[in-house]
Amino acid sequence: MEPNEIQLHCSQCKKNRPITEFDFHSSGKRRKSCRKHAEIRTNFDNWDSFMDDVRRFKHTGQGTTLAAVKVFQLNSLPVPTINLGTNGTEQAEATKALANRLVKLIWEHGGFRFTLHRTYGRTMTYYCCQDEEKSKVSKTKGNVLARSMKRYKCRSKAAVSIDLQAKTATIAFKHTYHEPYLDKHVSQEISEWLTNRISQCSPAALFRAVKDEQVSGYERVTHDQIYHLWRGAIKQFWPCDSNPPESLRQQAESDGLSITISGDIASFG
Q1: SS3 for 51-109, per residue?
Q2: Which end of the chain is more exposed for a tag (fewer CB within 10 A), N or C?
Q3: Which helix (H) or strand (E) is 160 found in, with range?
Q4: Under DSSP, is residue 168 helix (H, G, I), strand (E, B) or coil?
Q5: What angle (nearest 5°) sits at the alpha carbon of residue 145, between those of residues 211 and 202?
Q6: CA 48, 50, 55 angle in degrees (round to 5)?
Q7: With a threshold of 0.70, does the pTM exceed it?
Q8: CB–CB of 118/166 below 8 Å?
Q9: For each of the chain's 269 residues, which pLDDT tens digit applies?
Q10: Distance, CA of 123 to CA of 96 (rounded, Å)
Q11: Do residues 122 and 83 make contact, with C-beta atoms less than 8 angstroms apart?
């Protein structure tokens, strides 16, 4: 070190080092750590390989754990190009949108839905929506169509960190297997439409009617969604038996009526 050479404090070494050992960011600002800690990464993970791991995990047995830390180049990810903007607010919104999209892809390929719980800087932390230790309070209280989601001790976490300088995304993922989440959400319009008709028709008839009447959101609704909502709510209308036709028959007999059931039509004698 030359006499009187300017020194900077390295945030990693916790020591003063010559200023010449501190490189510059692409923004023109000098790094806070010396060159010893600023080696450029040349080996990155492959997103398709990670998705293969996620898909295989979906078919493993109860109690199996998938744990991985992956680093991807932003331009290699299957997400639309995001305008990162020029100010802090725009960059924060863009990085959050990117992280949300990556976590949604994990859900689409693996069947496990993770929801955002906190944001710290450029790191977004998500937990499995079925993690009993991290679950949020339900906002669907009082809705006849709402069904409680089964919870598990799955010790979940997905932390997504976006580095705009290095143009990388790091995902620290951990999850213990359980029965994958089934999306039962439908549009508010369909939910209200079903509430008024759910005791009158079979799931198949309801599904056909939603499509025929083109209730808002009908393009995305599935038969499984209608069935699960119907099955959860119908128990309140048919208390005698879990099988609606049998419940109807028992209720009619208790009222002194005879009944004949054919398909979706019930005739009283």
Answers
A1: HHHHHHHCCCCCCCEEEEEEEEEHHHCCCCCCCCCCCHHHHHHHHHHHHHHHHHHHHHH
A2: C
A3: strand 157-163
A4: strand
A5: 50
A6: 90
A7: no
A8: no
A9: 455 678 888 877 778 888 877 777 656 677 787 777 655 566 899 999 999 999 899 888 888 999 999 999 998 998 876 666 567 778 888 889 999 999 989 987 888 889 999 998 889 999 998 898 887 655 544 444 444 578 899 999 999 998 877 788 999 999 999 987 666 677 788 888 887 787 677 888 888 888 888 888 877 777 777 877 777 776 666 555 556 666 666 766 766 666 666 655 555 45
A10: 8
A11: no
Query: In the numeric block, which tokens belong to residue 136?
Result: 């949020």
Could you tell me how many residues make up the chain? 269
Token pair belonging to 140: 């669907």
Helices then strands, counting H and E runs in the chain, come out as: 6, 9
Q: Are 17 and 8 in contact (CB under 8 A)?
A: yes
b/e map of 120-147 (b: 16 or more CB within 10 Å)? Answer: eebbbbbbbbbbeebeeeeeeeeebbbe
Hunting for tokens 């297997």 — which residue is that? 177
Burial of 109 (0-12, 13-18, 19+ CB in 10 A): middle
Q: How far apart are CA 179 and CA 182, in angstroms?
A: 9
Sequence-ordered list of residues with C-beta below 8 angstroms from that of 67, at least 6 positions apart, any chain: 173, 174, 175
CB 161 within 8 A of CB 122: yes
